[in-house]
Structure formats: structure tokens, C-alpha cells
Amino acid sequence: MSFLSGLAKFGQIVANVAGIATGLGPIFKGALPSQAGTIDKVESEITLIAGQIQTVEAIGQALAIKGPDKLKAAAPLVAQVILKSALMAGHEYDAALFTQGASKIADGFADVLNSIKPDKVTAVKP
Fold it and tell me: Is 125 among the domain residues?
């Protein structure tokens, strides 16, 4: 598989994960209609984090960067998404512990994306 076709497949995987998250939105909105705005925001943030991981993965593939170094590159990007979220708005936090948590989230998202078998992606979920 060429780099570009691999990257296209990876893009489909990210879209699939985002589609799964988005597909759950209507279920949650139906159960919690007063929280629809919050659910939309969470879906958006999940998509942003997946996009950051996808970007780092693409750059990592192009430059032959190993996994631990890709994590070092992704963690600050994920941290920025989290810092801009309502979760962190107006709160003081322990920077070292926050950085550790953001790194774990980036690592977890990468694991989730890597768990999807690219040869089984045939269509992007709505």
C-alpha cells in the first residue's frame, strides 16, 4: 500500500470514529434533550482530537517518526483542544498532572484509531 493510499485509508478510519461518536449523539440528545448543546460540543471536540492525531500520524509517516515521538508531538495539540473546552474553562489546574492526562488521552485516541482494521473500512459513516 502506498503512503497516499495508506493516508487516505487512515482518513477514512478517523472519519469512521468521528461518525460513530456523531452517531451516538442523536441517541444521547433524545435521552437528554436539555443537554443537546453540550453533546454537540463534545462531538466536536472528539472530532478535533481525532483530527490532531490524524495530522501527527500523517507527518509521522512522512518523516518516519516513531510512536513515542509522535505521542510527544500529539499531546500538546490534544492539550490545546482540552484547554479550550468547557471542562477547563475558568479552572486552575496542576500543569504537570494536566500534561500527563493530555498525553494519556492522545495515546488512547491513537490506540482507538489504530484498533480499526483499515482493510475493513469500506465506507465512511454519516
Answer: no
| Structural domain includes residue 123 | no
List, as one string, the DSSP characters of 5-63.
HHHHHHHHHHHHHHHHHHHHHHHHHHH-GGGHHHHHHHHHHHHHHHHHHHHHHHHHHHH
Amino acid at 48: L
CA-based radius of gyration for the chain: 16
| 126 is a domain residue | no
Q: What angle do CA 107, 47, 60 make, to 5 degrees?
A: 45
In tens, the pLDDT along 60-81 reads 989 999 999 999 999 999 999 9
| pTM of the entire predicted model | 0.66
Provide the number of structural domains found in the chain. 1
